[in-house]
Specification:
two-stranded antiparallel ribbon, globular, alpha+beta, 18% strand, homodimer, 174 residues
């Protein structure tokens, strides 16, 4: 049974969840980020069934996150390489790593440390407003309709009270 | 049938996916960020079944992302408010918004624009290394074992070739 589809919703969260929430998908991408290219590498590292892996890889190629590139002629064999879109998805995983390290790692501490390849120094992931450099804090943000929000939804957007102490207008990502 | 559990894996991505990949969960959190507090608000905004919503809210309370707070005595009625852990989860959704706006929004453009509550200026989400202020780029990062990685996994970590043009050591988040 196909679950509810979120990819057609006018919401970047819903669309990303539709792709990333495909359970194994972010973990397949993780392995690609950490250097996996060949089917068997993904399969051995993740220990998932070949059938499920093949489906996930097909979806990621279809979505232009990975591209299939032949690395051998006879017989033809392919490997999976990150596209620019796929590489940029690491920012989403980085935000997950930051949050997971902070709130889910427990007393054992973070399982993995990211380091700058050139300097070897630990990377301190932050999600910020590039304009001000300040960390993103929902209490300081309101969401307003963007150009991609269908008129009929923009019209029905209700004003809500934002979380936190201050009152303000905020509209929802429909 | 319960899907594969990722919450016990020593990986902050897997743990966050286990929580966030619960399909509706990030969207319930989105509504909380945009001001929803009461069961009916969540239900009307998302249009999901009361049964599924109740499960998701229970999970989020159990995970300390939301807390149940009584707002009425007779009969007792509760609303759901963000905890600090829950509020911080907006950084993960912000990274999704950034990536989704960039790669999935299409010609219509972003459905929603985030603005600074105080200045009204658009927020330009970026995932950066707080130390240097530079955008996170997987080609410049290696993953090394952290304190929370079980010994037996750290021992078997294989060195892999990182994606991108430069060669280097990178180990995987097991």
């Amino acid at each position: 049974m196909r679950r509810t589809r979120f990819d057609t919703w006018p919401c970047s969260i819903a669309r990303t969840v539709d792709l990333a929430g495909d359970w194994w998908t972010p973990l397949v991408m993780r392995e690609a980020f950490y250097g996996a290219r060949r089917f068997d590498e993904f399969q051995q590292r993740l220990g998932l069934s070949r059938n499920v892996l093949a489906q996930r890889l097909d979806r990621l190629v279809e979505e232009d996150m990975l591209k299939r590139v032949p690395y051998q002629d006879r017989p033809v064999r392919h490997e999976y390489r990150l596209t620019e879109k796929g590489r940029d998805f690491f920012t989403v995983l980085a935000a997950m790593i930051r949050w997971g390290d902070r709130w889910l790692a427990g007393p054992a501490g973070p399982p993995v440390e990211l380091r700058d390849r050139a300097t070897g120094l630990p990377v301190d992931i932050a999600v910020v407003d590039a304009k001000t450099g300040r960390p993103i804090d929902i209490r300081e943000i309101v969401a307003t309709p963007g150009p991609g929000l269908p008129q009929e939804l923009a019209r029905t957007l209700r004003k809500t009270t934002a979380p936190g102490s201050s009152q303000g207008d905020s509209t929802r990502c429909e």
